[in-house]
């Protein structure tokens, strides 16, 4: 009887393991990749609420594939773009993650890795949903408004220029200038 239980257990374990997993890869399309218009060492000019103008630099850009999930003898992999940059000597990071055939996530964090980190997150199911955004007395075309994880923090993101405007809880802000 003991041998039969061991045999049933071994059969169950071996039957539940996949020998030939299917791998499904979700790559970003060229149109989706264009949502991140930054290249390494790009210099972006910003103005703050005090009228000071300064440059920010794109420090690093990486593209990778990461495992999303694994079930039913299938492995799901999504493409990811990550950007690290600075604005006024503060570290920022941005990721664009492809999760499936119809969803990408955009996440931007200010003060990345610091105690007072603010994250702006948007799940994008249709990249044609960017439009005109009126915010803080400015008009931004081909853009979306993203609220931060902390109250009263807002970011405006455009398909063509990336980050256009960041408003912080204390009323300070950064605006991209050409």
Write up this protein.
The chain has 178 residues and is mainly beta. It has one domain (20-177). It is built from 2 helices and 12 strands, in the order αβαβββββββββββ. Strands 1, 2, 3, 4, 5, 6, 7, 8, 9, 10, 11 and 12 form a 12-stranded mixed beta sheet that branches. The radius of gyration is 22 Å and the shape is elongated. The mean pLDDT is 88.
Nutshell version of this structure?
This protein has 178 residues and is mainly beta. Helix content is 11%, strand content 57%. The chain is built from 2 helices and 12 strands.
What features would you highlight for this structure?
mainly beta, twelve-stranded mixed beta sheet, 57% strand
Topology:
Blueprint: H1 2-16, E1 22-26, H2 30-33, E2 43-48, E3 53-71, E4 74-87, E5 90-100, E6 103-110, E7 118-124, E8 131-135, E9 138-147, E10 154-158, E11 162-167, E12 173-177
Parallel strand pairs: 1-4
Antiparallel strand pairs: 2-3, 2-12, 3-4, 4-5, 5-6, 6-7, 8-9, 9-10, 10-11, 11-12
């Amino acid at each position: 009887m003991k041998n039969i239980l061991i045999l049933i257990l071994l059969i169950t374990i071996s039957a539940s393991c996949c020998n030939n997993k299917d791998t499904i890869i979700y790559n970003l399309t060229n149109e989706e990749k264009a949502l991140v218009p930054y290249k390494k060492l790009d210099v972006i000019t910003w103005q703050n609420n005090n009228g000071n103008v300064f440059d920010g630099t794109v420090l690093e850009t990486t593209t990778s594939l990461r495992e999303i999930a694994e079930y039913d003898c299938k492995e799901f992999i999504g493409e990811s773009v990550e950007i690290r940059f600075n604005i006024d000597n503060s570290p920022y990071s941005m990721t664009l993650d492809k999760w499936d055939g119809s969803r990408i996530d955009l996440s931007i964090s200010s003060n990345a890795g610091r105690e007072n980190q603010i994250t702006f997150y948007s799940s994008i199911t249709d990249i044609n949903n960017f439009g005109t955004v009126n915010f803080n007395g400015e008009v931004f075309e081909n853009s979306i408004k993203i609220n931060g994880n902390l109250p009263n923090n807002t970011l405006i993101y455009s398909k063509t220029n990336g980050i256009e405007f960041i408003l912080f809880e204390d009323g300070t802000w950064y605006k991209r200038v050409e």
